[in-house]
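Student: I would love a firmer grasp of how sequence relates to backbone shape in proteins. Thank you; the sequence and its tokens follow:
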Amino acid sequence: MDEASASRSDPGAQEQAWPSPFRRWYAVAVLTLGYILSFADRQILALLIGPIQEDLNITDTEISLLIGLSFALCYTLAGFPLGWLVDRTNRRNIVAIGVGVWSLMTAACGFASTYAQLFVARMGVGLGEAALSPAAYSILSDSFPPERRARAISVYTGGAIMGLGLAFIAGGAVITAVSNAPPVTLPLIGELRAWQVPLVLLGVLGLVFVLAVMGIAEPARREVSAAQASDGAAERGGLLAFTLTRWRIVLGICFGMAAQSVVAYGLMSWMPTVFIRRFDFEAGEAGVLFGIVVAVFGLAGNYGGAALSERWTAKGRPGALIMVCVLAAAGLLPFVAFAPTLNASWAVLALTAPTIFFLTLPTAVAPTALQTIAPNAVRGRVAALFIFVTSMAGLTLGPLTVALFTDFVFRDPDAVGASVAMTGLLLGAISLLMFWQALGPFARLTKARLEAG
């Protein structure tokens, strides 16, 4: 009998004490650090474009495939079989193996001497990182009571924001350090180009980090039998049956966040260019300023959304998690419409701050809502579905939609700010509609479960 089946067949598993505060917050801390490390590993290539192109003699299109497609394909598609494993095996071990794989593949990127080698190694990075979030969401959901779950998951999702902010802030320094640096000779390894060194060092750091992951205690899998009785068929039928049973909620959350993700990736990809093209900022200067805004206001939105959902839940509002998502989508629209188009750099930066805040407000509460309604037996696969939809939309459509507006609608490179605004308005409206249609069914289901005990 597998682990998930054992927990379902043992009613006493429901009554086990929650992990101690130290154990549960140790898991939060390690998983969050892992998320930060994963973003450093996936984003580092974007900071090394110049020297990589010069050394491997590759085009902008080829480097864009390395940064996006090679990583995204494995990252999103591997989530489904890994989510299946998360629902059946030791989740801590899955995280440890994932960290080990992506760290080895990051180091392999550093040893690559051809485009094909680098492409395959990037696919390996995506494969390893696909293991982290499905397992992390499941571990945290079984480590914290429902009323505290959003706070814990918000700390974890904050790791992505911290990783992005640090990537922008450190970008200028990295570019400066490696652009004209000579080759480096390392013991037992030999000569490496300057751009290869940070990749190898990040890989080694990740392999050491596996030891911290092994200190996470695997929590008991928890069910709320009476409250989830209506989901029995969904639990037996797996992800598809659950999605069909709760389709308005699942699709509303997934596609609402997918639309938000398109706006977010478009903004992250092109706002530094807005400052460079329209206001003659240096690349390093634009990266630092934008990175500070992303880190400060992104974390404020991420943690603020969790705190607000907890407050509304405490006041007896069963739809609190989705209410925060609706508020985020509605609040985003006026700011994203004007922030990139203003004629003063300080005004653009000032309005970008609330834009980032509302973009990140649902970052923790949306996946928390899915984990709240999902039977334990499918939580890993539900997380994989969420990551697949949001990541594929964001990684592929975010930067592309802005570029298409610039090239084919405005036909002016300096109109990139207007392109960001149009992308934000269009996808922000879709996000608002998707969240709104999920609110009623989610509130009714949550209320019924609370009444059932």
Observations:
- The beta strands are 184-186, 190-192.
- DSSP finds 20 helices and two strands in the chain.
- The CA atoms of residues 84 and 381 lie 6 Å apart.
- Confidence is low (pLDDT under 50) at residues 1-14, 224-235.
